[in-house]
Amino acid sequence: MRKIAVFLLCSMFMCMYANAPFTAADQPLMNAYLENDMPAWRAFIHATDWEQATQAERQRILAYEYGYCAAMMETDKAEAQKATQLFHSHVQAMEGLLPKGYYEMYLSAIYAFEFKLGQSFHVFSILRYANKALELAPNDPIIVGYMGNVLFYAPKGIGDKKKALALFEKAATLFETSQWKYCWNRPAMLLAAAQCYEKTGRTNEALSIANDLLNEFPNFTYIRDIYLPALCNAK
């Protein structure tokens, strides 16, 4: 689950699809994220015929594929490889059709997934495309949060936890006034922010975020059962 936060906008991102608000139809998948039920995401991804899908449906599928790839990196490498290949082909098919900055963010994520799988060592491409996404959409909370993830989890010499914290803080503020406030991407980003505070010695801030997340999302199983107890024990 920790590594899910590396890639989820972010993301990820962070709502299920880039240019449509969170709706009641997304609530089961939001709950699946909180309860770490990735088979539910896989079922959604494969329930829609990509060739017959509308552009909006394709954007929504991409957002779930993105999160699903990240989750599989830690639990099933063979599935992660297949999911990443599918995601890559779908991103390529949507070049020029995604909202500003999202194509570049997805390319950055693909390089990150391939690096994790040992298929690519273009670490600087992860950063280059993330920077390009941020240049194109500097006030999109999903993209801002993704850039924070990249800087937080990047290898030594490339990452920058202080800059990551500044981006997480900016993303948190942007989420509060955006249509993405109630999307799964927001708790994912806040979890990464808590971990970043923890790693920079600011345990009280990490605890505050973790407690706030659990109060808002009592079914956030990773916070409830793993992260918060470990954080309290380490304090």
Description:
The protein is mainly α. The protein has one domain: Tetratricopeptide repeat domain (Serine Threonine Protein Phosphatase 5, Tetratricopeptide repeat, Alpha Horseshoe), CATH 1.25.40. Helices cover 68% and strands 2% of the residues. It is built from 12 helices and 1 strand. The chain has helices at 2-7, 27-34, 38-47, 55-72, 77-93, 102-116, 123-136, 141-153, 161-176, 185-199, 203-216, 221-234, and one strand at 9-12. The chain starts with a helix and ends with a helix.
Low-pLDDT ranges: 1-19
Radius of gyration: 16 Å
Approximate helicity band: 55-70%
Approximately how much beta-strand content do the residues carry?
Answer: under 5%
Our count of helices gives 12
Assign the CATH class.
Mainly Alpha
Domain module count: 1
Helix and strand succession?
A: HEHHHHHHHHHHH
Second rung of CATH, namely the architecture: Alpha Horseshoe
